[in-house]
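Thread: sanity check for a docking pose with S-adenosylmethionine

Original post by kr_44:
Hi all, I'm comparing my docking run against an independent structure prediction. Below are the sequence and the ligand SMILES. Could someone generate the full complex and paste the structure tokens? I mainly care about where the ligand ends up relative to the chain.
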Amino acid sequence: MLVYSLPGTFETREAHLDLLWEAGATGLEERAGLIRAYFDTETELPAEIRDGQWQDEAEQDWLAAFKATLRPVRAGRITIVPPWLRAEVEAGQVPLIIEPGMAFGTGHHATTRMAVEALGELDLAGLRVLDVGTGSGVLAIAGALLGAEQVLGVDIDPITIPIAVENAQDNGVPEGRAVFVQGTLGDELPGDWNEPSDVLVANLYAELHDLLAGDYAAHLRPGGPLVLTGILTGKLALVRAALEREGFTAVQVREDGEWALVTATAPQS
Ligand SMILES: C[S@@+](CC[C@H](N)C(=O)[O-])C[C@H]1O[C@@H](n2cnc3c(N)ncnc32)[C@H](O)[C@@H]1O
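Reply from moderator J.T.:
Ran it for you. Here is the predicted complex with S-adenosylmethionine included:
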């Protein structure tokens, strides 16, 4: 997996994202002030975005600095904490321990927090939860801690998978209950995960939600809840249109600053 990372400010980000998609990026994320785009091969890029770097997935210096800033994050019934702050979780809260590392999903991004909150509002007891773009595994693990019987996390970036597995172990989620695989929707999934899930959660970009909306409908049981985030408020119309196109109903939006979370109900047939 090749990663092209370049500085991303609020002003430049929208244009950068569009150029990276057009250049053939297969996935995009933001981390510590950088836009990171995944490519299968090193690609000639337009002049406007040649100020970035092609990289391996080597450990970066920013990680140590980032770790020092972390605080517990409360998200509904769950508090997301790094292991060394476990004692700070208030009584009555469910601790979700995430070792900060190379995978996105420490809980400090508004999108992760909103998604954990939204999962906590569902009755997940005994259900199967599919998490697309699992990163650290945080949303899949939240699903398991909230009572889901089975969770599957899929991510296009192979470095996330062992990290998510380890985070699930750190949270006492048994191996058979939480499975993590590299891939995306449209790929063959393990076990019976090609059958519809009860709940689907995805923290990706609006453009990806647009591309994957048909797969979301195919992977959810009729009437099943969909939780989507990673959506800039300026891109909400794209996601709304995609959900309408695929027959989702009961679309609701919540916002935190520039980020939005959308919930919807899968088509009945
Ligand atoms: C914003 S992070 C979300 C991480 C975590 N689920 C959370 O909520 O904090 C997005 C993740 O999606 C992955 N990703 C990007 N494009 C993808 C795709 N097409 N299919 C599956 N995963 C993808 C990235 O590798 C990254 O780990």
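The mean pLDDT is 90. Hope that helps with the comparison, let us know if your pose agrees.
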